[in-house]
Amino acid sequence: MEGEMDETRWQDVERERLSLADLLDSLTSAQWETQSLCERWRVRDVAAHVAMSPVPEPSMSTLVAALVRAHGHLWEAAAAIAVDYAQRPTEEIAAGLRRVAASRAVPRVTNPDNLLMDLLVHGQDITIPLGIERPMPTDAAVAGFRRVWSMGWPFHARRRMRGMHLIATDAPVDVGDPDGARVQGRLGDLLLLITGRADPALDRLDGEGTARLRSIPRPSGGTR
């Protein structure tokens, strides 16, 4: 069963990479330079981060050097490495993502579930500021949501959503406090919410709990 689940995740990862590469190919130069939902990252920086995930970059020496410059902060180091990678031509970034779409290489300290979640969320980080609708496949979105809900760092979703009842209207997801303040809507928007992207999700979510969402602090270190 576990092997079958891993195979499904890898197939989801490949589909998301290919569809995102197709989308990147369609963007204008101005769109590549647009601010994404990730703090300090343009669309090109987010695309670079996703494209470089399955390849053997950065090297250990590059990572160590980045960590030193970032005073040991992993997120700061990873953000800087992505910005450096993003200096490549946009065509190369998109082509690189397509080239590694079927790769099953797993970067350090991650797994296929994290890779899928990363692709789903970063796809929205790119498209929402551009006004482009990018639906999340239901099964993949359920897997991504459950992964974030089950983990602690960096999102701490269960702690941040304490006292709330999250209900997806388009998928079998119902989590949180059954007696808590109700927050309901599309699963993709709930996934944005629990990964610290409350602002773009607020207008799409319903329920008495939505009034409290603006006061929930984002994960420390900025939006990932």
From TrEMBL:
| UniProt domain Mycothiol-dependent maleylpyruvate isomerase metal-binding: residue ranges | 15-104
Superkingdom: Bacteria
| A GO molecular-function descriptor | metal ion binding
**InterPro entries, A to Z:** DinB/YfiT-like (IPR034660), Maleyloyr_isom (IPR017517), MDMPI_metal-binding (IPR024344)
The stretch of residues making up the signal peptide is: none
- Which NCBIfam families has this protein been placed in? maleylpyruvate isomerase family mycothiol-dependent enzyme
Name this protein carries in UniProt:
Mycothiol-dependent maleylpyruvate isomerase metal-binding domain-containing protein
Q: Which organism is it from?
A: Phycicoccus elongatus Lp2
